[in-house]
UniProtKB/TrEMBL annotation:
Pfam families according to UniProt: Kelch_1
Zinc-finger as UniProt keyword: no
Coiled coil: none
InterPro entries: Gal_Oxidase_central_sf, Kelch-typ_b-propeller, Kelch_1
Superkingdom of source: Eukaryota
Name this protein carries in UniProt: Uncharacterized protein
Species of provenance: Adineta steineri
UniProt keyword terms in alphabetical order: Kelch repeat, Repeat
Transmembrane segments: none
PANTHER family, per the entry: KELCH REPEAT SUPERFAMILY PROTEIN, OS02G0202900 PROTEIN
The keyword Repeat is assigned to this record: yes
């Protein structure tokens, strides 16, 4: 990768590439993203997320987009969500979740919706859930 990072996510795209998003590099929280092509063993930077985040979740949707939810920005816990479009290498901010959360789970259901559960909001652990 072009930058060291921890607490990031890795998502497999429809074309077989892997999208790496966010994390923390020991001195700053990251909004950057990179693509890994396993066929060529080459890394490339791609469009950056709108918000720096670690402890977030990334889900590969049926339509080929990547949904990134929640996390921690270094100064606040996040309720924001973004969609990555691999066709255009761009990010779009979408509606916020109902509550701030990091360390949550995001599970793709049979109907294509994403179930977001639990996590931490900066002061307590959560037992709430919501659907995207």
């Amino acid at each position: 990768m072009s930058i060291t990072r921890r607490q990031h996510t890795a998502s497999i795209l429809a074309n077989g590439s892997v999208l790496i998003t966010g994390g923390y590099n020991g001195s700053r929280y990251l909004n950057s993203a990179e693509l890994y092509n396993p066929s060529t063993n080459i890394w490339a930077t791609t469009g950056s997320m709108n918000v720096a985040r670690q402890y977030h979740r990334a889900s590969s949707l049926e339509n080929g987009l990547i949904l990134v939810t929640g996390g921690y920005s270094g100064s606040s816990y996040l309720d924001s969500a973004e969609l990555y479009n691999p066709s255009t290498d761009t990010w779009a901010t979408i509606g916020n979740m109902n509550v701030v959360r990091d360390l949550h789970t995001a599970s793709i259901l049979a109907n294509g919706k994403v179930l977001i559960t639990g996590g931490y909001n900066g002061s307590s652990y959560l037992n709430s859930a919501e659907l995207y």
